[in-house]
What does this fold into?
Amino acid sequence: MKCPIRYNLWVDKDNNPILLDQDCLKEECAWWFPLFQGCVIKSFAGYLRDIALASEAVQEKMPHVEKFTK
It folds into this structure.
């Protein structure tokens, strides 16, 4: 089956994504992003993951409310 936004993704123990069973249409697909030679949906997913990880890092560095109360 050709892929209009169908990815079977597996993540290994080091949190690296591995694509399985994909038949990409590349330039024929509306979701193809020629600048990065990849699917724009896959790019969005990666960006969202990076934002989530950055937000988690900010949350860990924020002081707790108990430090500001008497």
In short: The CA atoms of residues 13 and 19 lie 14 Å apart. Strands lie at 8-11, 17-20, 32-33, 38-39. Residues 8-68 form one domain.
